[in-house]
Design brief:
Largest sheet: 10 strands, antiparallel
Distance between the termini: 41 Å
């Protein structure tokens, strides 16, 4: 199947928040940042878990970084906190997420202020589009999902919001997952959202103009016709650990390597596209529902189309417990296959087939050894 949309695929980051630790010899309070030349806006109260919360402004007075720090409950009498002294959160402002290099910006800030990154606390990645790669209109697809014409595979806890009129119903967004989910999935009418909120994010509309989807940023239109832009968004939470290569459905690739869920993976447009291409087959997968049929026998409804020249596919994002389980299952499968090959070679000892089996055994043994040593692991720390 060929992708029908001819414009460049529009992808990016909409939320970028890190869990970090402070150095003991640096003042990270609002006054400490002021002393280092930052303009700061403080909130009178913090959050449920952090006593201090403030925003650092850029040279033009726009929000740049939000800081939440000073964990509550660190006194000797309290044992209810999961935090340590110096733990804090830093979040890049939404406007700067649409910079050409949002990961570079937050990394430069971390380096300048001498924080240590503990993990990505939350990263939201998205793709904006007018129609699906398949040629389907998003509004019709959303309606068919609600009507169960298309049935979702995986992550089926759904929420929806829309409008009922006398003549028809409109669904503005659908989301899947819950508060504890490693990944939350959402598809929604981004144009309507901007209209409803007074379009306080002109940088998003400008992003559409640069990509060629619109030519009028005021009316969000192209050639005088209004354009409805939709967004598919994945919110990846802090319990994500690594991307494990499990192979594509139509391949028998035995190699299993891992990529750490780190900023390095999302530092380029290609990296974000790769992540989207590997999240969509699991978190945004649908079947055309047929009553009385098992879902495995129903036809897939493909909406996004990625080819091998565009992305690297075959990865699955895992949390810590899932990652260990998948690695163990893959290892066990290969060991079982290896044992069968060894037994077959012994039965065919002395024949030319035994030599061929020997080559296969050597290759599979090498794979098993690589997996056990995890030599394909990638250190994503870019500092």
């Amino acid at each position: 199947m060929q992708r029908r949309e001819t414009r460049e695929r529009l992808v990016g980051i909409d939320w970028l928040e890190l869990f970090v630790s402070e150095r003991g010899d640096i003042d990270y309070s609002a006054n400490g940042f002021r002393a280092r030349g930052w303009e700061v806006i403080e909130r009178d109260y913090g959050t449920k878990t952090m006593a201090e919360m403030f925003v650092l402004l850029d040279s033009k007075g726009y929000p740049f970084i939000e800081v939440r720090r000073a964990p509550r409950g660190l006194d000797a009498l309290s044992k209810k906190t999961i935090y340590q002294q110096g733990d804090s959160y830093i979040r890049l402002s939404n406007m700067y997420c649409y910079d050409q290099d949002p990961v570079g910006l937050v990394c430069e800030f971390v380096k300048r202020e001498r924080y240590t990154i503990k993990k990505i606390y939350r990263i939201d990645i998205y793709t904006d589009f007018e129609i699906f790669d398949s040629g389907d209109k998003p509004s019709k697809v959303v309606r068919r999902i609600v009507n169960h014409t298309y049935s979702k595979i995986n992550q089926c806890h759904r929420r929806t919001s829309g409008t009922d009129t006398w003549t028809e119903c409109f669904d503005n967004w659908l989301s899947w997952g819950n508060k504890g989910s490693m990944v939350n999935t959402k598809i929604y009418d981004k144009t309507k959202e901007l209209h409803d909120t007074g379009n306080h994010k002109p940088y998003i509309v400008e992003n559409w103009r640069r990509a060629g989807y619109i030519d009028d940023v005021v009316n969000i239109s192209r050639n005088g016709t209004s354009v409805q832009m939709w967004r598919l968004e994945f919110s990846i939470k802090g319990n994500a650990k690594e991307w494990i290569y499990i192979g594509k459905e139509d391949s028998d690739d035995g190699y299993m390597h891992t990529l750490e869920h780190s900023l390095a993976l999302y530092s380029t447009k290609q990296g974000v596209t790769n992540a989207l291409a590997n999240l969509i087959p699991y978190y945004f997968r649908f079947k055309i529902y047929e009553e009385g049929k098992r879902k495995s026998n129903c036809q897939d409804k493909t909406l996004f189309i990625f080819d091998d020249a565009e992305v690297e596919q075959g990865y699955r994002l895992q949390n810590q417990s899932d990652a260990g389980r998948v690695r163990a299952v893959k290892m066990e499968d290969d060991i079982i296959a290896l044992n069968h090959l060894v037994k077959a070679k012994m039965k065919l000892y002395g024949s030319e087939y035994a030599n061929q089996l020997g080559d296969m055994i050597n290759e599979l043994s090498h794979k098993v050894d690589q997996k056990s040593l995890k030599i394909f692991d990638t250190d994503g720390d870019i500092f």
